[in-house]
Automatic annotation (TrEMBL):
This is Sulfatase-like hydrolase/transferase. It comes from the Bacteria. It comes from Algoriphagus sediminis. The keyword ATP-binding does not apply. Belongs to the sulfatase family. Residues 30-348 form the Sulfatase N-terminal domain.
Amino acid sequence: MDHKLFITIFLISIIFSSCSKDRFEEVSKPNIIFIISDDQDYRDYGFMGHETVETPHIDRLAQESLTFTRGYASAPLCSPSLASIITGLYAFQHGITGNDPVVKFTGPRYPKLEAGAHDFPRDSYPVRRDSAFQILAKNFYKNKLITETLAEQGYRSFQSGKWWVGSAEDAGFDSGMTHGDYTRGGRHGDEGLKIGREGLEPIYDFIESTSEEEVPFFVWYAPFLPHTPHTPPRTLEEKYLKLTPDSTVAKYWAMIEWFDQTVGDLQNFLREKGLDENTLIVYTCDNGWIQDPSSNSYASRSKRSPFEGGIRTPIMFKYPKGISPKRDDKHVISNVDIVPTIHSILGIDHGELPGINVLDEQQVQNRTTVFAEAYDHDIENIQNPTETLLYQIAIENEWKLLIPNLKMIEKADKTKEEQKAGYYSNEIQLYNLNKDPLEKNNVSEQHPEQVKRLRKKISSWYQN
């Protein structure tokens, strides 16, 4: 072969090889779906050992994922927890510490919005609340959200389900269901709360549109499930009414299976469209829930509490092209680890995020402690949202330490109402989770060295 012709062919092959490689890297970016359960106990899954609740689709997801059964929400309340999931920051860093800002009132600690309970007309509450919330939102959006990061990587994103801080567009999604307009009931997620309960068509339509455009997608699926109101399909309700004498528990269990069915529907859609192999699914729950058999609400030591029933959740990462399935029952991880893990998959620098890449086994083994914060439901001071801190929490291997904020918790609150609001004890609490998984025995006096050591870790972590 002519020498010059050989060189020419060689150079052309390099050019085409380079172009093909760039294109492969572009299309091989995984699609990403966050599946976020809403108000569910960490034990209420088949794969976690529940003897009655059936969750076959989530069980299969757990088998196909890198699954951490000792995952933790950064806060036992939905809005700050969701804000951590989307930022990779703790509440004291991102500023969303509660669900609602307090609008000045003269009533009791937890007033109902009734005439006479406040020092302003009831009709003015939505306007005043929205004005205060806008300040919180403005401060929150100074943080970089995963939506912004993914947009820089060529992703299109869609929001459905719960979202507290304004609209889907405010949060950097290209489109979504939540409008956030207080004049139309914008709170909690508004129109987004229809997802799952009324089918998954908006998600399907969005994914179809991204396939046509040949761009990777990010879907936020945070349905109002199994959250109250517990209104499951009648067939599921009847199924569980035969398995428990408590109708409220039966409805809660039925809601869990209904949620599981939607997870199965979503995964089946991905398989049918040939998207399963190149889609990263991240699963977690925003906060815990233990059903109160005597009411339609939650029991104490669950939602809004610093106990395992309030903050523990399984966390899963399924990505057939890049993650080997494995169940980890030993190491502790947090929902603040989700964003840096995605950064690592995409080859993006973590910056100063507090979490780790949970795909790195060495990082997982070296990090022995995760932290959490428990705040009051409402944000008293929008300029200083951490004033309503109730507990700082550290979980290290078998040890768990709770440090109360004595400015908020002045006594050991014994009533059911106080405990369900997150007020439990003004004493330091230390538990050995291996020996006492239900956190019944405070052993802080017997192990002062553990208290001292973990308290020092909390002081280093909580830089407010």
